[in-house]
Design goal:
The chain is of the alpha/beta class. The protein has helices spanning about 35-45, 55-65, 75-80, 95-105, 120-130, 145-155, 180-195, 295-310, 315-340, and strands at about 25-30, 50, 85-90, 110, 135-140, 165-175, 205-210, 220-225, 235-240, 240-255, 255-260, 265-275, 280-290. Helices cover about 35% and strands about 25% of the residues. It is globular and about 70 Å long. It starts with about 25 loop residues before the first strand and ends in a 5-residue tail after the last helix. About 40% of the residues are buried.
Length: about 350
Amino acid sequence: MDYDTPMVTTPSDIAPRSKADTLPRAAVIGAGGWGKNLVNNLHEMGTLAGIADTNADHRRLMAETYPEVTPVADYREILESDIPAVLVATPVATHYEVVRNALECGKHVFVEKPLTMDRDEAWALARLAESRNLILMVGHLLLFQPAVLWLRDYLAGGGIGEVRGIHQERLGLGRVRAYENALWCLGTHDVAVQRFLLGDLQPVTLRVNGQSILQPGIEDDVYLHLEYPGGVQSHLHCSWFWPERRRGLTILGSEGMIQYDEIRQIITHHRKGVDKRMEVRDNGSEVVYNGHGQPLRLELEHFLQGVADGTPIRSDGRFGAEVVDLLYQATELLRRAEKDAVPYP
């Protein structure tokens, strides 16, 4: 098969929609780094109503680029306005306070991942949003990648039979952090994806290994292993101290194997396996999906559409809290493993 000609194209139900005239106004809190992308997308969608940032240079740039909006230094000015929704892109250490204040002021909230670094705080925010009947959405961007949506449906339809194992890689050189390890920084994406693909399945066991190469106490290289009911296992390797950039997902099934190349946005179905007689079968491979890598607009439309008409949120507060809970437990296990290590021989 010609690998440049995909067998399946983007389904109509996940294609970008044009609903700017029905979407509510929203403001961005934190306009540096990724926040600039949120501002730009809201501007293009015609829904940008406010910007808050403590950095004077950021405010100056925003005022020059988007003269129709006057940036403010104190985000509480936005919370006191009639703007119904806010998007939070501040440092993760500030998420709990900013999101809590926004919810208490009656705002629907989109916050970049992870929701918090503390599981108790994450669950508190999820419950607060539910108690106020407000939307809390966590920006797990890959859940809005068309290829991931397509893959979820393909697996649910038995495309490779029963899922037996999941292998993920998120590797590269750089993006080193001093306040979070590689699992929190990089693995958050992949934990969210595997939980999304597996639906209601909850892990029953967790194992994790990590190595602090560059800074004591900050794991630069982490392996996370989860086991789900029925024997399904997942294995994630994430590192910011790696010679080449890899973004991959391989899923092993009873009737075949599938690989998702996140960089190229290609999904390949390998019609291969081992039968009951332990004999290898190989019926070739083919590209079954070739998508695009621009999920941010889809993600923001999803949030604002939920604010407008109550559409269920794919990555709501509970989903975000579950991801934080798992990462928190994995990090605690890493700390205990360091203390429990014994000399050998």
